[in-house]
Write a structure and sequence with these properties.
Elements lengths: L1 H25 L5 E8 L12 E8 L7 E6 L4 E6 L1 E9 L6 E3 L8 E3 L2 E3 L5 E4 L5 E10 L8 E5 L2 E2 L2 E7 L12 E7 L2 E3 L11 E6 L1 E3 L2 E8 L14
Parallel strand pairs: 1-11, 9-16
Antiparallel strand pairs: 1-4, 2-3, 2-5, 5-10, 6-7, 7-15, 8-9, 10-12, 13-18, 14-16, 17-18
């Protein structure tokens, strides 16, 4: 009888020690923080809210482990991600035709447009779609009390300019079936975290237009003017 009691006590002690070891291993797992993402739309007044916003969190210690979240309609929402220091980029994802480059790097992430051949066989870039966004250089998500959420506030701004044009004094426009226009000295790319144009880049943008009575009119978006020093701007 004594031997049976001793065995039971030994088994209970062994189970208890095993449970303690398992609990210690849990501390090796990353702790997750609850983040409430809020979009402040006060700086967008000349355009409707986008179809949705994409938010990318870049850990400062390892950018390869990015965390990406979509917010339909650009509405606020809560997400969870491991506690860490982050840098953040957001932009609208209803951007048909946009080419995203170096999106694994906060500093190199670039919005780009496609290269095309003009009717006279010149290499040009198409104009970008409407784009808005924001970036934050540092967000600290550490030691957040349980049951609470850290607020990350993003204020999207226009990241493109809207140009309109008109050509007057033309004859025979009733015979025009299609037309294209181009403007040199522009940029077909934009650095997202710096909201800046790549250095040394000067391109011609190709866009369309339409006939309205005795005029040719049109409009397009562009990242901005980036002509090299001494280079003229030419509208074709």
């Amino acid at each position: 009888m004594i031997r049976i009691r001793f065995s039971l006590v030994f088994i209970f002690l062994w189970i208890g020690l095993t449970a303690c070891e398992h609990k210690d291993l849990c501390y090796d797992h990353p702790h997750f923080a609850t983040v409430r993402v809020i979009f402040d739309w006060t700086k967008i007044s000349n355009h409707d809210k986008p179809e949705g916003m994409r938010v990318v969190f870049y850990p400062t210690d390892d950018e390869s482990n990015t965390w990406i979240f979509d917010f339909p309609g650009g509405e606020d929402g809560e997400v969870e991600l491991p506690e860490n220091d982050y840098r953040v980029i957001c932009f609208n994802y209803d951007t048909d035709g946009m080419v995203w480059k170096e999106n694994g790097s906060y500093t190199l992430f670039t919005a780009d447009t496609r290269d095309v051949q003009s009717p006279d066989n010149r290499t040009m870039a198409v104009t970008p779609p409407w784009l808005c966004g924001d970036h934050i250089d540092r967000v600290i998500l550490k030691d957040i009390p349980g049951g609470s959420a850290e607020i990350v506030r993003l204020t999207p701004v226009n990241m493109v300019c809207h140009y309109t044009y008109e050509v007057n004094g033309l004859r025979g426009l009733d015979r025009v079936a299609d037309l294209r226009a181009a403007l040199s000295g522009m940029s077909g790319s934009l650095n997202m975290s710096g909201d800046s144009l790549p250095a040394g880049l000067s391109e011609s943008l190709l866009f369309d237009g339409m006939v309205s009575r005795n005029q040719i009119i049109g409009g397009f978006y562009t990242f901005g003017h980036s002509a090299l020093e001494g280079e003229p701007n030419v509208f074709r």
